[in-house]
Structures are given as C-alpha cells and as structure tokens.
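[job 4471] stage=fold_predict status=RUNNING
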Amino acid sequence: MQKEMMYMEEFKPEREFRLTLEVVKELWSKTYNTNGKPDWSHILPYYDDTIYFKDTIQEIRGIVAFKEMTDRLTERSKDLGMKLVKAVQQGNDIFIEWEMTISYKKYPSSILYGLSRLTINEQGKIIEQRDYYDLWGDIFDNIPSFGNKYRKFMKKKFG
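[job 4471] inference complete, writing structure tokens
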C-alpha cells in the first residue's frame, strides 16, 4: 500500500486525463518510438490505479505492478518500436492493431503482430488492457530454418 501511495504521488496529474481515440493514437505513437527505449511516463496517468492487464505471458493487477512490468520491458529491450496499423473505438473499448519491432540484447530483431483492447472507465482512464499476439511464432519466424519447422508443426497439430 505504501508503494502504491508513493507511485500515485509521483505520477499525480496536474489536470484530469480523459482518453479518446485520437489521444490513444498519439500517446501510443510516442510511447514506443523514443530512440529505441520505450517511455510510458506520459501515458501512465491515463491508467486507473486498479488497472487489470493480461497478455500471453502475464496477468497483472494494479498500477504499481503495471509500472514494474513496463520497467522490465524497457530494461530487457535493446530497441523497441511500434507501428500503429489501425485504431478503432466501440463504446468504452478502444482496439489498437500494431506491429512491434523488438531487439533483444542477444537475439535478432523480431516483429510481433498484435492487438490491444483498452477498456475505459467512467473517469476516462484505462481500467483494463488485454494484449493479443503470437509471441513464439513471431519470434521463431525470424530464426532461419527454425521458423519454417515451427509453422509446419503448428499447421500439422492445430491447422
């Protein structure tokens, strides 16, 4: 609880933050295209303190845990960029289709293709974020000969 209070004071907005589709597109474009290292400082005030985040790797609850996750991703990424393909809104949900290019310290660059669903609460903040992507398939596609074997295996077992 103490850590959450310190965090909330650190990122306390000077004004109210209310998300719209246009604001989301602008913020996401800035977040991942900052000379290689992502920077979430401008977007974190738009997340509710009780944010629920889930992707193919992890499930996180609360702004402190979410901030720690963004810090880990920044630390382990040598270079990270994101291209927004499409963004649409339906009611309180904003859907963002994206292509993320990530370079790890010891491995070749990979493009991950994905979609994020952001759910906005009554205060105009992100209360839930669900990211969908094929982490291993997109990474394996960039490893010569292994990517083809992986795709053949997936097609044989699940296609």
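[job 4471] summary: The first strand starts at residue 47 and ends at 54.
[job 4471] exit 0
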